[in-house]
Amino acid sequence: MRERTELEDRLGSIKRFDNELEDAVTLVELAEAEEDSATEKEAIDQLKSLKVEAERRQIEALLSGEVDSNDTYVEVHAGAGGTESCDWARMLFRMYARWAERHKFKVEIIEETAGDEAGLKSGTLLVKGHNAHGWAKTESGVHRLVRISPFDSNARRHTSFASVWVYPVIDDKIDIDVKESDCRIDTYRSSGAGGQHINTTDSAVRITHIPSGIVVACQGERSQHKNKATAWNMLRARLYEQELERREAAANATEASKTEIGWGHQIRSYVLQPYQLVKDLRTGATSGTPDDVLDGDLDPFMEAALAQKLSGGAPIAVEDVD
């Protein structure tokens, strides 16, 4: 039923697009015949808008991976650098939440571990929406920030790193067998806001999968039972994503290098001083307005990464409106 609904939505949107395109072309022809420049400009603007939408739909139509349409988890971890790095992790955490809100996706905070003085040591978001994982999966990697640190009394420029890990929520049709004997389960008190109960009971849960070394944590609920159930789901999702990576690496050795997440392997740089620029080192996509990017304007970077990956590096283009 879900697949049927998605297909109906796609077909419906294509029909609406065709109708809007036909209406715009007809309007241009009428305006030219009547020499109505204002109406002609309005129709051409509409065609340009449709062109932008067509480019986006062309990329979105290629999101045909096994789990591209699923909800997704977005994990952010601060790197070395103390308070400055934790603050950068908090900025990234907010950036992805704002990106999800722009797309009308539902966002839930699964886990937050506060930094010693400010920011986040780590945090996990659950983003719910159609193709949430397909779009967000391009964000996995190390993100680098260059700015004058507000925590440095000498106002010196600092470079900070934080890693982002994106993996899909797996649904009931995907069976992942995890042996409880292979896992260590720890409970602890939640940190951050939440009231007296959440801070005084061992409701937070951390599960360590010993064979793989994968660690997941959840403290979003007041109930330890609910947090444990969510943590198990996160672990199964991580193991599934790991298996997908193995398949991808076996099929294409060059793709294996893209899955490495380590210091010095940043995928994107955000420079706030001495100049303002965000640059994706994989695709060359840039933005001269870092404030907009940090407020969730990530679509140009995601689209460029998808276009590069899904077309083997060749750009995906739509004919210009004449």
| Pattern of helices and strands | HHEHEEHEEEHEEHHEEEHH
**What is the number of domains?**
3
Structural class: alpha+beta
CATH level 1 name of the largest domain: Alpha Beta
CATH architecture of the largest domain: 2-Layer Sandwich
The main β sheet shows up as:
8 strands, mixed
Number of DSSP helical runs? 9
- How much strand content do the residues show? 15-25%
Textual characterization of the structure:
The model is unreliable at 253-262 and 314-322 (pLDDT under 50). The protein has 322 residues and is of the alpha+beta class. It has nine helices and eleven strands. It has three domains: 2-60; 72-173 and 259-310, Alpha-Beta Plaits (2-Layer Sandwich), CATH 3.30.70; 180-250, Double Stranded RNA Binding Domain (2-Layer Sandwich), CATH 3.30.160. Helix 1 (2-34) runs antiparallel to helix 2. Helix content is 43%, strand content 23%. The longest helix has 33 residues, at 2-34. The strands form two sheets. An eight-stranded mixed sheet has the order 2-3-1-5-4-9-10-11. Strands 6-7-8 form a three-stranded antiparallel sheet, covered by helices on one side.
Give me some keywords for this one.
322 residues; Alpha-Beta Plaits; Double Stranded RNA Binding Domain; 8-stranded mixed sheet; 3-stranded antiparallel sheet; globular
